[in-house]
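Question: does this match?
>
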Amino acid sequence: MSLKKAVFSKTGYIKGKQCLKALYLYKHHYSLRDPIPTERLKRFSLGSDFGILARELFPFGRDASPTHVHRYAESVTFTKKLIQEGITTIYEAAFLFDGIIVYADILTKLPSGWALYEVKSSAKVSLVYQQDLALQYYVIKGSGLDLQHASIIHLKEPLAEDYQDQEIDSLCLVADYTEYCHENYVAIEKDIKEMKNLLARPRIPAIEMGDHCITPYPCDFIGFCTKQCNPPAEGLFKE
């Protein structure tokens, strides 16, 4: 039995929470993105490196990462296989539910049930991080796994240049957001329905520029929206 195609990932969901127009452009007009600043690329690299390091908190796991971003179905199938085989710690476990694909940084089985850990290379847990975790909780629970805990592993303080020489336990804090995820389950379901309806439309939504263009993150499509103020962007069709 083949897996249904994913509509979007958690990256798309977070974009949609910030601006529905950004989600639409991301899905239908990806080539219109602004160039990614070098500093942001460095942060991405740092976050990826720290995510690998954090696996030392839950060693001897299996990696379910896809061989290519578009081959998520293989990763979902492989994750199911690992769970069925009794593997109790999985890195980048993939789950697909309600058209959303997510990859869990660390998924481990505890006596009380499965636990999800999202790793963030930040000393603060932002609302966006909580939304990110809550979406993963929604998808994983919806997939049928007995997920009982959802937490964020984050830094005690900003990383020093020599952080690789420190024990991972000394760098991290673990914050439990299971209750937050549970309380936002229905709201996420509504968000996804709204986003799907938006993506099915034939035109770019007419949303004016404002504070949401830079908060909580600078949007990838600021350049496009600035140029399209006249004529209005809603007059454009999908590619």
Summary: The longest helix spans residues 38-53. The longest strand covers residues 100-110.
